[in-house]
Every structure is written in C-alpha cells, then in structure tokens.
Design goal:
With 345 residues, this protein is an alpha+beta fold. Helix content is 32%, strand content 20%. The strands form four sheets. The chain has a five-stranded mixed β-sheet. Strands 7, 9, 13 and 14 form a four-stranded antiparallel β-sheet that branches. Strands 1-3-2 form a three-stranded antiparallel β-sheet, with helices on one face. The N and C termini lie far apart (54 Å).
Length: 345
C-alpha cells in the first residue's frame, strides 16, 4: 500500500496522524526518511467531509474541493493529488463531481450588505444578519461558539523580543518617539482603526513596510525596528483555510465552519486591498468593525494579514505600548514599479 507523509497535508489533524507512522519514503510527495502512514487508513478521519457533499454534474472533482474548500492537501502533492485522494476515499470517487449541500458563501454574501449598512445606513447599531447570526455573543444558536473555536485555531503567538518594522516618509529627521502611533486626538482612521483610536501598523520585513507607505521615487524613508516587550496572541488571516482544520469540528458544524472560512478570507482580502485615500474614511468602516470584534470580543492582541505589496505580511497591534521602537535609520527610494491592467472593452 502506498504511503503518505506529514508533508502531504496542510491540515493539522492529518499531519498529526501521519506523524505517528513509521519512518520511510513518501509515495506521493517524494519526501525521504519521514514519518509515513498507509493512506487508506485515513478514511475514518476525513469521512465527515463527504457528509457535506453530494454528487452533482455541475460540481467540482473531489481533489479540487480538498484543496480549495477544505484546505487539506499540501502543494507538495499537487501532481499526485488524484491518486492520494483515491487511496484515501476509494476508487469510487474517480470521475465524480461534487457540490455542497449548502451555500458555503452565505456569510460572505451577508458581508456585502453588512458593509453597505455600516457605511450608509446604521453605523453604531447595525441590524445586519451577519451581526445577529455570527458576531453577537447573545446569538441563540451555536454559530457564535463555532466562530470563536475557528478563530482559536488561527491564533498565532508572537513572542516577546520578536522584531517587526515600521516606515515613515519624511524629509526631516525622525526619532524613535516619532515612529510610533500618533496621539489619539489626531489619529486618523485606517483600515483597522477608527478615527481617534490609534493602532500600531507594522510589517515583517523592511521591504514590505516601505512598500506599504506607497513612496515615490526619491522619497526619503525612515525605518525603525519595533521590539515586542511582551508575549502576544495574534489572529492570523494569512491563509485561514490551510491554517485551520475542518476535521476538528462535528458534522453538524461543517456548514458554519466552511461559511466562516469564506468570510474570513473575504475579511483578509478587504484588509489587504488598496483603497483610494479620498474614499478610505468610508471604505475602512467595515474592517474597523471586524477588527474591534477581534480585539474586544475574541480578545486578541492584533491581526496578521498579507500585504497587497509583494509577499510580506502586515501586523496590526491594538495596543502600541507592547512594542518598543528603536532609533530609525534613513534611506531613499531609488525605484518604484506600477503594474497597469487595462479594463476590458
């Protein structure tokens, strides 16, 4: 029987199962001298996935769903994913197409109406279904508890002593004291923070933090290292589907879990996408609301999300006092690049 290994999966439950196998060579990704397990022994672990699907002529093949919706398979097995799926689920899946028995985009669809209500109708007492069904601790159903359990899986500890970066454009010299957040009375609204409530925006490397301030050629940039002075619990939205495990939930919770993953991916995209400065005070309101939920209800210290500029990650820290800025150094932008895509005719 073919053997799979810990590198074949992104799902933590499957990785844990494979880690208990015997050391050998993987039949799928080619890894050598790693814990391996017979792939056909994993069916009982993943069986609940089939309970949320039905055969459909207009659906997708199971391998695509395992990648795109369930986040189970690693890119390392992309070339041999079909064989691995057949070994796990049985040869009966060959040639079949599947669709969900429920709408996995339910909450992300509600996000659109939620945004419009916050921006143009009700700012402080929204009536959106997304509030009553998902974001309200007083919700009568179990969806709220499922949502918090999913967020718990996305917890990303950040150790004290860890270093992140922040950049500012300035022709005048800046000190470490000037590299942090502005005072509340002059803090403008950002993609995560409301006006008057400053959050600390950092990046994982210098290239990303410089790109995030959107400099032009010859701009003078000051960059500081920010050192964490305490351990933090952050919510990682860089890849929610692969960083969580749907296999840790019950069958009756699967609809909520997949809908929440779709919502979190949309939220992450909203945090990352550029917004024109003249529209930011309105367009940022929905993401500000969600960040306050993460801070005040889910009790996280900040959020990690992908930068729209390159491959780096951005960090939003709700309490700037947990980081200490080092004296900045000055640099100058020598080249910028703008990719242009024409609208279809």
């Amino acid at each position: 029987m073919a053997k799979c290994c810990i590198h074949c999966f992104t799902d933590s439950v499957l990785i844990e199962a494979a880690s208990k196998g015997v050391v050998g060579n993987c039949s799928y990704c080619g890894a050598t001298r790693v814990p391996t397990i017979s792939s056909d022994t994993l069916f009982s672990t993943v069986e609940l996935i089939l309970y949320s699907l039905e055969v459909s002529a207009v659906g997708e093949d199971l391998v695509t769903l395992l990648h795109k919706q369930f986040g189970l398979l690693s890119p390392a097995v992309v070339r041999d994913a079909g064989r691995l799926a057949r070994e796990i689920f049985g040869d009966d899946i060959a040639g079949l197409r599947y669709a969900f028995k429920f709408d996995v985009s339910l909450y992300s669809s509600q996000w659109l109406s939620f945004k419009e209500e916050l921006k143009h109708k009700n700012r402080f007492f929204p009536r959106s279904a997304l509030i009553s069904q998902v974001l309200s601790p007083s919700a009568s159903n179990s969806s709220f508890e499922v949502f918090l359990a999913l967020l718990e899986q996305l917890k990303a500890p950040f150790d004290g002593g860890g270093v992140l970066f922040r950049a500012r454009i300035s022709e005048s010299p800046l000190t470490a004291a000037q590299m942090g957040t502005p005072p509340p009375m002059i803090a403008s609204g950002g993609r995560a923070n409301p006006i008057g409530i400053p959050y600390l925006y950092l990046a994982e490397n210098v290239e990303t933090c410089v790109a995030e301030v959107r400099p032009s050629n010859a701009s003078a940039i000051y960059v500081s290292e920010f050192v964490a002075i305490a351990d933090l619990n952050l919510l990682s939205l860089t890849d929610p589907r692969c960083d969580s495990s749907v296999l840790k939930f019950e069958e009756q919770q699967m609809q909520d879990v997949l809908c929440f993953l779709d919502l979190l991916e949309r939220f992450s995209l909203e945090l990352s996408k550029p917004v024109l400065p003249d529209k930011s005070h309105i367009e940022y309101i929905p993401t500000q609301y969600m960040c306050e939920f993460v801070k005040s209800v889910a009790n996280y210290d900040g959020i990690v999300f992908n930068s729209s500029f390159g491959q780096g990650r951005n960090y939003v820290i709700f309490n700037s006092e947990v980081f200490q800025a080092r004296e900045p150094y000055r640099g100058q932008v020598v080249r910028t690049r703008h990719d242009f895509l024409a609208d279809p005719v």
